[in-house]
Design brief:
- By secondary structure, this protein is of the alpha/beta class.
- Helices cover 33% and strands 18% of the residues.
- The strands form 5 sheets. A 7-stranded parallel β-sheet has the order 3-2-1-4-5-9-14, with helices on both faces.
- Helix 8 packs across helix 10 (336-345).
- It is globular, with a radius of gyration of 20 Å.
Length: 350
């Protein structure tokens, strides 16, 4: 099978490319090598793939790239919260317009294969919450005044009480709360619209949770929190943990994420719709900082809980992994502690 992997030179995309090549598939990679994630062409790429260094938004070049492909694995995107709202046009251009150009090229080619999209847990906004009195509720954005006073938990929209977070299933309502989240949800909607108008195409939206592991980009505001902690420890600095460190996330290893993509692309029966790709074993942000500090050894500084908060961030969001297990056959294999120990010494990209 010939597979196009957009963003295939990136952190997650390079692992997917390796996994597909290892399974005997032919891979063509399109990657613009965006400076937010790359400092030139990476030196750790699997040279068995065919690499095309151009933007997904390059209509002419992309038409050539999709020609003859049996399946599409769309990973190319700007990720993370970014610096501030000034990033909005870059996010929309790379994520939404880039996806539209890809889908237009597939339309023109008469594509009728599988389409796997790298989506994200950020489409949920705040996670799933239960109030002792009102049951399942959807809290609104956290109050700025409360955040400044150090009250970080989301409150019940009916009574104001603190809520109990629960694992988010795929049928939970979506509520993107930052620019990146809005673009990821729009990518899902564009792919869904494409499927409706193209018989035979099946789109699988893999909603990644907090992905970590070798080849994460270092020292960039677009990197994941685990990478930022690791980069700080390398400099001899204590990991800086916002709020009180109690934010719950699901950390899933990049090799597990790559395996989920291969399953979605190759299993006998395709799986349509959204799937959480997660470990199913949530941890706090402080847990991740502590695990990395310990992995660096006794002389490593302990995490510093610094308070504060970031606009657009949410308190808790972690996944139900049942649908991916039942429909895709995906179960994460890399243990949290083992994965964090590996990350402590794994090569990162500059």
């Amino acid at each position: 099978m010939r597979v196009l992997v957009t963003g295939g030179a990136g952190f997650i995309g390079s692992h997917i490319t390796e996994a597909l090549l290892g399974a005997g598939h032919e891979v063509v990679v399109v990657d613009v090598l965006h400076p937010a994630a790359h400092r030139g062409e990476p030196t750790d790429l699997d040279q068995r793939a065919e690499y095309r260094w151009h933007d997904v938004g390059d209509r002419i070049a992309l038409r050539r790239a999709v020609a003859g492909c049996d399946a599409i694995c769309h990973q190319a995107a700007m990720v993370g919260l970014g610096v501030d709202f000034g990033d909005v046009t870059d996010y929309v251009t790379h994520n939404d317009l880039g996806t539209a150009v890809l889908l237009q090229a597939l339309h023109e080619q008469g594509f009728a294969g599988r389409l796997v999209l790298a989506s994200s847990m950020v489409v949920y906004g705040e996670g799933r919450y239960r109030c002792a009195e009102h049951g399942l509720v959807r809290p609104g954005p956290r109050d700025t005044a409360a955040l400044e006073q150090g009250h970080y938990e989301a409150g019940c929209p009916e009574c104001g009480r603190d809520l109990v977070p629960e694992a988010v299933p795929e049928d939970a309502s979506v509520d993107p709360r930052n620019v990146y989240a809005a673009t990821k949800l729009h990518q899902e909607h564009l792919c869904g619209a494409f499927v409706i108008e193209h018989s035979g195409v099946v789109a699988t939206m893999l909603r990644y949770h907090n992905v970590y592991g070798p080849r994460m980009p270092r020292d960039t505001p677009y990197a994941g929190v685990a990478s930022l902690f690791r980069s700080g420890l390398e400099r001899g600095e204590a990991p800086r943990v916002f709020e009180d460190g109690g934010q719950i996330r699901d950390f899933v290893h990049v090799r597990d994420v790559a395996r989920a993509n291969v399953l979605a692309l190759t299993r006998p029966e395709p799986v349509a719709g959204a799937l959480n790709i997660a470990s199913g074993a949530p941890h706090t942000i402080l847990d991740a900082a502590v695990a990395l500090s310990r992995a660096f050894g006794e002389r490593a500084p302990s995490p510093a809980v610094v308070g504060g908060w970031r606009a657009g961030d949410v308190r808790h969001v972690f996944a139900s992994a049942e649908r991916a297990r039942d429909r895709l056959g995906f179960v994460a294999e890399v243990d949290f502690d083992a994965g964090m120990r590996e990350l402590a010494s794994a090569p990162l990209r500059r």
